[in-house]
Recover the amino acids of this structure.
């Protein structure tokens, strides 16, 4: 006979720092001090709203709340405070968080909690915009008529190791009618799902494959023209003129596909954060 496991229904919060590895690489001691300061801020709001720290590993935080409304309010106030403190800091140096919230049944093991409820919260955190919050459908159902905030339905998302699609909502950090302190372009740029990243990668691979096919075609034409040139008028290398035209076309296309501009840098930052999230989710 299997022993009964202790379980409870609770609201799980998962949060972590966006771009933490990059920040540590630039300034280890400074980043660690700033991480401790943000955790102190979180602890203050946690005590105010009756939450409990489950664990803090690396730059991550897992907490739970007996009240769904309190969990959301705590998350909003924490994010607003952190975002406000980062407003005057250069974009690449900001220490901003992603937050995911889920209401679910969990297994209790000592001070820790386990189960699908925790896993869903962790996946929602990876879908959250930098400086923002994503909540599950179960959280939305509990708070939609209790808080003066707007919600944006992002769709039913298929996430790793979860059998059924999860209804996902993004949550406004400010009360209705007030603009959020998170810069809009940052929120939009970082609200990138695994599907979005995969689509970008597939598009980039297709562009590169098309370039290689075109290069092979142009190369074959140039070789053919060279043979004709040698056969008909070896004293005048006229095939070089079309060859230079083909080379110019390929060169301009290579710059567009492989060149490193602002869009490529932004893609690399998003990809870095996405890969970090995937590595953490493997555990």
């Amino acid at each position: 006979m299997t022993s009964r496991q202790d379980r409870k229904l609770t609201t799980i919060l998962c949060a972590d720092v966006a771009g933490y590895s990059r920040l540590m690489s630039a300034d280890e001691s400074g980043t660690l001090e700033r991480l401790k300061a943000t955790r102190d801020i979180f602890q203050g709001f946690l005590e105010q709203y009756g939450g409990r720290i489950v664990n803090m590993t690396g730059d991550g935080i897992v907490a739970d709340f007996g009240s769904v409304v309190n969990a959301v309010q705590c998350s909003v106030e924490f994010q607003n405070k952190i975002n406000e403190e980062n407003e005057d800091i250069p974009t690449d140096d900001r220490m901003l968080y992603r937050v995911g919230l889920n209401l679910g049944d969990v297994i209790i093991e000592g001070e820790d909690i386990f189960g699908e409820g925790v896993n869903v919260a962790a996946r929602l955190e990876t879908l959250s915009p930098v400086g923002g919050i994503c909540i599950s459908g179960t959280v939305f159902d509990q708070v939609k008529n209790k808080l003066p905030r707007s919600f944006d339905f992002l769709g039913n998302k298929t996430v790793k190791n979860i059998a059924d699609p999860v209804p996902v909502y993004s949550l406004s950090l400010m009360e209705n009618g007030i603009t959020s302190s998170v810069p809009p372009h940052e929120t939009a740029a970082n609200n990138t799902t695994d599907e979005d990243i995969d689509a970008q990668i597939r598009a980039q691979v297709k562009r590169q494959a098309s370039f290689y096919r075109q290069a092979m075609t142009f190369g074959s034409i140039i070789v053919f023209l060279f043979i004709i040139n040698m056969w008909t008028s070896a004293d005048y290398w006229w095939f070089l003129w079309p060859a230079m035209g083909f080379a110019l076309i390929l060169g301009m296309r290579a710059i567009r596909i492989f060149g490193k501009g602002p869009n490529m840098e932004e893609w690399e930052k998003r990809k870095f954060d996405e890969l970090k999230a995937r590595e953490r989710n493997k555990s």
Q: What stands out?
A: DSSP finds nine helices and eight strands in the chain. The chain has two domains: 7-190, 197-272. The radius of gyration is 26 Å. The beta strands are 7-17, 51-55, 61-65, 97-109, 112-114, 133-136, 151-157, 166-171.
